[in-house]
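Provenance and format

Records in this collection were gathered into a single text stream. Each protein contributes a sequence line and a token line. The two records reproduced below are adjacent in the stream.
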Amino acid sequence: MIADAVLVRLREIDPPTHIRFALVHAGRRDRNDARRGWRGLEEVRRWLVEEYPQLQHYRPPNGLTKVVKRDGRLVAFDRGKLERGIGIASKGRGTRDDVRQLASDVAVDVEREIGDQPVVTTGQIAAEILRSLRRRDPIAYLRYASTAKRFASPEAYEAEAVALRNVDYRDLR
């Protein structure tokens, strides 16, 4: 079968692409023949260790350690940098201590939501920051959203402001 030959070749030349292809090919459950597809995560992990025996001894890091930047670079996660970015978006939204506390609270929210993943993208982090700021402060939210979503027009700000109008912040604190 062609897909099996592709899997063999990909394993030789590019293991990450090999695994992605296998997730599509071997992970399918919609076939009408003897190939049943992977039913769950344990079958995937069994396959991974069969294909890459060195994984038997690999222990992934606990918690959030790396961030994939927009340009593809992999950098260490830095909670201080996270809080500074939130603080910039929240500048003037209370006293310095209020802003520091907001930044810390939002960082806690972010880590609670994605902190069990060792590697995340900047997009995932931005989405969680926005989710938290949306509940806490509409102005800080709009400031951060304008950068994260790359607003390029007054209409983008207005559309976001209209969407925020229906949030009752007293109920979300």
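Adjacent record:
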Amino acid sequence: MEITKTNDSVAWFALQTRYRYEDRIAAELQTKGFESYLPKLREVHQWKDRKKVLDVPAFGGYLFARFEPSLQNRVRVLETAGVVKLLGCHGTPQPVSQFEIESLRLALESGAPCSRHPYVQAGTPVRVRSGPLAGLEGRVLRMGNRLNVFVNVASVCQAIAIEVPLDTVDALDMEGEIRLSA
């Protein structure tokens, strides 16, 4: 069965998953013809006898799927083994902004060290103007001697933090326009 897609109605949605089922669900959704995105962080795990670099889900228990939110598609997604629910409000799935997904991809694929954090509401909105993170928007906070840009994903109430040099960011006003160089 082919999924009918129109550019206007296809959107990203956040899915809550069973514990450690994210990879299996992403693969199953691809098999069903849905586009999925499982953001991953690179972490160093240490055991008694060795250290190993692992790619782990950035948001444990969550992944993103892109589809037209018809009843048929929602049911097919929810029937996937390991999917707990579509995230939304009052039983209605809420789309995740394409901009949030692209900012998340840019941050995680840049090669810059990233870490997971709770959702950040404080901080000045900024846009990175140069370097591998050029175009990335988020909120900037100083943590110790480091300047971090936080990419918030509201649907899962979590964020990814990326350390950036101060001279590469521009502060934004409420409309997303550059107001001054930081």
